[in-house]
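Hey,
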Amino acid sequence: MSAVTSVAATIYAASVPQPGRPNEDALFVGRQAGAPLAAVFDGQGNAEGAAKKAARQLERLYTESGGRVDWTRTAKLLDSHLLGVNKSTMVAASLLEDVISLCAVGDSRAYLVRDGQANILTESASKQKLGSGAIQPLIKEFGVQGRDIILLMTDGAWTHFSLYQLAQTVMKNLLNLPELSNSILKQASKSGICDDMTVAAFVIRIPK
């Protein structure tokens, strides 16, 4: 088996609502063999339904495509799907062979943690949201390495971290990766939960 076809990923995700209010975030995790995908959404304002509606539509598109989504087309379809309702951000990642494809609309973020360092992957994403009718999604691709971790985070979560703090939180959980997303949320909530917080962690594995 070649190195390309042996690349795999495990996805861990968690979400915490703002106390006393409905969760306006949503997430979707697709686990089709050979094409895993994760996405987090943050509804605008009192918009619990918008994020969940976008997540359900992404699930449908993912299933129909056999897991191989075209992010340019998918983002436009999600944008149209939310027209006339509240808006939502989205940041998503999919793995095909040894390449991660990212798609970002709005201020939810993707990070790459590699060799103990964290970097923002979606800093230049537009401020537009799904449902605006004229989005310009940020789409990016890059080759993965073993032990890469891609984090997808709504702004309720990422605003609590510097790059150094985020990398340190990841490194402290390397021996307990199933708890990584929950640990990030626990760390973020230490200063109080002022917004819904959602994290999906894409953990890359290249078996020897």
